[in-house]
Amino acid sequence: MTEHAVEWWRHAVVYQIYPRSFQDSNGDGIGDLDGIIQRLDYLNDGTPDSLGVDAIWLSPTFPSPMADFGYDVSDYCDVHPDFGTLETMDRLIAECHRRGMKLLLDWVPNHTSDQHPWFLESRASRNNPKRDWYFWRDARPDGSMPNNWRSVFGGPAWTQAEETGQYYLHSFLREQPDLNWRNPEVERAMHDTLRFWLDRGVDGFRIDVMGMIVKHPDLADNPPNPDWKPGDRERSRYRSVNNRNYPDVYDAVKRIRSVFDEYDDRMAVGEVFGSSDEIAAFYGDDDEPGLHLAFNFQLINEMESEATHWEAQALQRIVQNAEAAMPRDAQPCYAVGNHDRSRFISRHNGDGRGLERARAAVVMQMGLRNTPFVYYGEEIGMEDVDIPEEQLKDPARIRTTGRDPERTPMQWDASPGRGFTESEPWLPFGKLERNVADQVDDPDSLLSLYRRAIHFRKTTPALLDGGHREIAAPSDVFAWVRWAQGAPAVAVAVNIARDPREVAFPGGGTICLATDRALEGMAVDRNIVVPPLGAIMVQQPAR
Ligand code: NOJ
Predict the structure, then answer these.
(1) Using CA atoms, how far apart are residues 290 and 214, in angstroms rounded to an integer?
(2) Which residues of the chain, if any, have pLDDT below 50?
(3) What is the pLDDT of residues 213-258, one digit of tens each?
(4) d(CA 263, CA 270)
(5) What SS3 state is found at 383?
(6) Beta pairing partners, 284
(7) How high is the pLDDT of residue 2?
């Protein structure tokens, strides 16, 4: 065992809740914290009948004008009235802890709301003491924007404010002005917002767009992207080298880490983008640690097949690169879904077989060396919902529909309000048959497979602490073994093909988890046929 083996987040499965969509407790059609408290037993009641997750991450719960549904924070130290009060949050923290679960909030350090008192002051006049808390620049002499940076949500990253005629920087919506992290007062104030919650017992944070908080000191133009062609996304026209993963960001991350280290057992997981090496750099090093975990989005972003986004060679390459780049003792964290991305099934459904791939994906997720994150509703196979234009709420149309399709309310049962609400839900529901009540007692449901996979992982030392080694397999099978000293090894095979594939497990063993439950418990001599689009785990005899 390494010295870090007992840190809770290494063994945890984390469940992401989008608070507006999990459970409405007061009949306004919007989910809230009391609703989450009511549903905690579903997540973990201490028995294998519940999902068995160890921690919850809540998308932002702070006061916000909701221009970007909470990612535009107007007060970092309170709770939005739609969700509850500080007292409700304290109760949620206590209720999680009573069940042995951890609670992570979502910290948004790159930008505030344009209604945050800091920004209201900052914009008031050129000599306001908070002027330098944000980025204010004049237009260039030719009247053009201060630089060529683009907003991630489209259009220029600058908006002119009428008070002074100067432009302010916003990497996202104009309602989300970027904070100037090179100003020590900003850094101090933001560190204090972390302490506010860590003092209240929150176990850590997911950190929004971690890699953007420190920019080029002169806000220099980004160089053109030589690969860009007309028709490509406008925001990839330039290479974001001066506003994303700028080298100085890593020191700021280490200073953020030191705030977490003032407390016991806390964890920071960053939303980061880039190559495997760039992701790895966010973990820092032994002398100066950075984030505990950094998301790797390559399983979502780097599948070449447009139709199914599911290829053995790509999965293998991504995991190989991540493993090779990780600093000593660091643990990967592969994102397979969240509130910004199409639902897993919808992303992998080009041939209508996304649900089968979702079953294989949970076996993969629980079998890889990583801290698995499950986005609410993935465990019951929720899909993107086709929402009529007039009901769309997301102002950021990164995709033409925005991100509402993957944010629809959790489906607890088949009643008109799906067990989510007694009134009109804030977004429409999805397919009726994808609901908890219909799956909970069906041993072959996706939900039951999630429960089995999570519980098997929790009780299997090789999956919790073991190393990762690839094993030979046909080219459309992704296969590896997890091994730990003194414990039985576990081999995993994910068949990407629509036909069966034979895989050799030298040494044999017993099938301990499979997308097809009928295979579980079967002894394997050496070769095993993995069903089309299926996945299995084989526990090998202890050596
Ligand atoms: C990433 C978040 O996940 C997304 O929902 C948000 O819109 C942007 N960051 C801006 O905060």
Answers:
(1) 15
(2) 1-5
(3) 999 999 999 999 999 999 888 778 899 999 999 999 999 999 999 9
(4) 18
(5) coil
(6) 289
(7) 45
Total residues found in the chain within this entry: 543
Residue 43 Cα distances to 34, 50, 446, angstroms: 15, 6, 15
Closest C-alpha to ligand 1, atom 5? 340
pLDDT of residue 543: 67
pTM (2 d.p.): 0.97
Q: Which two tokens stand for residue 392?
A: 């769309």
Match 């007292």 to its residue by tokens: 87
Q: In 3D, which of 194, 375, 381, 215 has the Cα closest to residue 297?
A: 375
Q: From ligand 1's centre to the CA of 71, what distance in Å?
A: 6
Residues 162-169: contacts with CB within 8 Å, 24+ apart?
Answer: 163/123, 163/124, 163/125, 164/123, 164/125, 164/126, 164/136, 165/138, 166/126, 166/136, 166/137, 166/138, 167/136, 167/137, 167/138, 167/139, 168/123, 168/134, 168/135, 168/136, 169/134, 169/135, 169/137, 169/219
496: nearest Cα among 305, 220, 280, 327: 305
Mutate to test the pocket of ligand 1, among 340, 393, 407 (most ligand atoms within 8 A of CB): 340
Pocket of ligand 1 (CB under 6 A): 68, 71, 108, 172, 208-209, 271, 339-340, 396
Q: Using the mean position of ligand 1's atoms as its centre, give its distance from the Cα of residue 69 in Å.
A: 9
CA 73 – ligand 1 centroid, Å: 12
Please answer whether residues 190 and 179 qualify as being in contact, where contact means their C-beta atoms are separated by less than 8 angstroms.
yes
CB 428 within 8 A of CB 408: yes
Residue 443: exposed, middle, or buried by beta-carbon count in 10 A (0-12, 13-18, 19+)?
A: exposed
- CA dihedral of 222, 227, 233, 238, whole degrees rounded to 10: 0
The set of catalytic residues is 208, 271
